[in-house]
Design brief:
single chain, alpha/beta, 6-stranded mixed sheet, about 35% helix
Length: about 220
């Protein structure tokens, strides 16, 4: 799965693709496939912290834009990675960028594995939660206008340096959502809407079969 994710990233417009890991077996596999891989600390609480270590060690310039793609997202369209980088480059007031898609089912609305996001009028995140947001006050109300967070991030290298010095937020620890550290400390995250997709990440063992079926049925690895 990691190799497939790396191949998807290489189909984007990225100037380079680096696999950051703390596992020797993943490092060995990446080297076998001639991929750029960097070992990182085992103590990172989030993917953002891991990416920060890579950026610092490689001494990337402050204006470098980095897009983080998790290794459990093998069906991510490369165009989404390009969109993230472009959106952040066009918004100097944003510290980070991410994506969302329209929430379509009550099952997703109630599922804590499907993170929701509320936006302001300019497309900046107001809050992310595993709980249903916005909440339905009346039980007989239809599903509200709501958005699912697509767990991809774009960062400027200079903000990654700042992120590492931000105090952890209680909300971040409660929800187990690293992006809440940014909002809690006054940062701005731009959120672009993309078309809803049947693609899913691998959060649980049972998701593997669903992702494999999606890839086989759509030819996602070729798109």
């Amino acid at each position: 799965m990691v190799i497939r994710v790396a191949n998807r990233a290489q189909q984007s417009g990225a100037s380079s693709v680096v696999i950051a890991t703390d596992h020797a077996d993943i490092e060995a596999l990446c080297l076998e496939h001639k991929l750029d891989v960097q070992m990182t600390s085992v103590d990172h609480p989030s993917g953002t912290d891991r990416i920060r270590e890579v950026a610092m060690q490689r001494d990337w310039s402050d204006d470098t834009i980095i897009v983080g793609l998790q290794g459990d997202e093998p069906a991510t369209p490369p165009a989404h990675l390009d969109l993230l980088a472009t959106n952040l480059a066009q918004r100097p007031e944003a510290n980070m960028g991410t994506l969302c898609t329209r929430l379509l089912t009550r099952e997703d609305y109630l599922n804590p594995d499907r993170v929701k996001v509320v936006l302001d009028k300019d497309g900046y995140a107001m809050y992310f939660s595993r709980s249903p947001i916005p909440a339905i006050r009346d039980s007989d109300t239809d599903l509200p206008l709501s958005y699912l967070h697509v767990g991809l991030y774009a960062y400027r290298c200079d903000y990654l340096k700042t992120y590492g010095n931000l105090p952890a937020a209680v909300l971040e620890q409660t929800e187990q959502l690293e992006q809440l550290r940014v909002l809690y400390n006054g940062g701005k995250i731009h959120v672009a809407e993309v078309e809803a997709s049947k693609a899913v990440g691998v959060d649980r063992l049972e998701d593997v079969a669903r992702v494999e079926q999606f890839i086989q049925s759509t030819g996602a690895e070729q798109s």
